[in-house]
Write a structure and sequence with these properties.
Strand content: 5-15%
Structural class: alpha+beta
Number of strands: 3
C-alpha cells in the first residue's frame, strides 16, 4: 500500500480503508494513484489533526478533476471558513461595482462588510464609512446597519484596521 503512491511513504495512513481508484479519470503527470486511503493530517491553519478520507480523495481527484498531487492542507472547519470568506467577498465585490442597490442588496452589502471586517479582510475605514452612510440613508432600521455603525465607532477595532 505504501509503495502505491509517493505520499503514502511518510504519511500516517489507514490501509484498511483503501478504495481502488479509477486511474482513467485522474489527472497526473507520471504516476496515477492506484488506491485512496484515509490519511491523518495536521491543519496548517489551526494545527489540529484531521483525516483526509479516502472517499473525499476519490471525489477530489475523480469527480472534481483535481490534479492527483493536490493535497488537502486544512481541516473541514477551515475549508468551510475559507469558502464563506470567498462567497462573501465575491458578493461584496459585485455589489460594490453596481451604481445603485435595492434595499435587499444594501442589506447584503452591509452583512458582507460586517463579516469581511470581522475576518480581517476589509481594512479601509473610509470605504466602510461610505457603506455605513449609504446604509443609514437606505436601510436605517436594519440591524446590520446598526452593527456596522457600532463596529466603526469602536476605537479598538479601528486601531486594528489601520495597523
Amino acid at each position: 500500500m505504501r509503495g502505491s503512491y509517493w505520499r503514502y511513504g511518510s504519511a500516517h495512513i489507514f490501509p484498511q480503508t483503501a478504495l481502488r481508484a479509477d486511474v482513467s479519470v485522474q489527472l497526473y503527470t507520471i504516476y496515477p494513484r492506484l488506491y485512496y486511503v484515509d490519511m491523518l493530517k495536521t491543519c496548517e491553519d489551526c494545527s489540529r489533526p484531521f483525516i483526509f478520507y479516502a472517499r473525499e480523495q476519490r471525489y477530489w481527484y475523480e469527480t472534481l478533476g483535481f490534479y492527483i498531487d493536490s493535497d488537502c492542507m486544512r481541516c473541514v472547519e477551515w475549508r468551510r471558513k475559507q469558502h464563506a470568506v470567498k462567497r462573501h467577498m465575491v458578493r461584496y465585490t459585485e455589489l460594490q461595482a453596481r451604481g445603485s442597490l435595492s434595499r435587499k442588496e444594501m442589506m447584503h452589502l452591509v452583512d458582507d462588510c460586517i463579516f469581511l471586517f470581522q475576518q480581517g479582510k476589509l481594512k479601509k475605514p473610509s470605504l466602510l464609512g461610505k457603506i455605513k452612510n449609504a446604509a443609514l440613508k437606505q436601510v436605517p432600521e436594519y440591524a446590520g446597519t446598526k452593527t456596522l455603525q457600532q463596529l466603526l465607532q469602536s476605537p479598538a477595532r479601528l486601531a486594528n484596521l489601520t495597523s
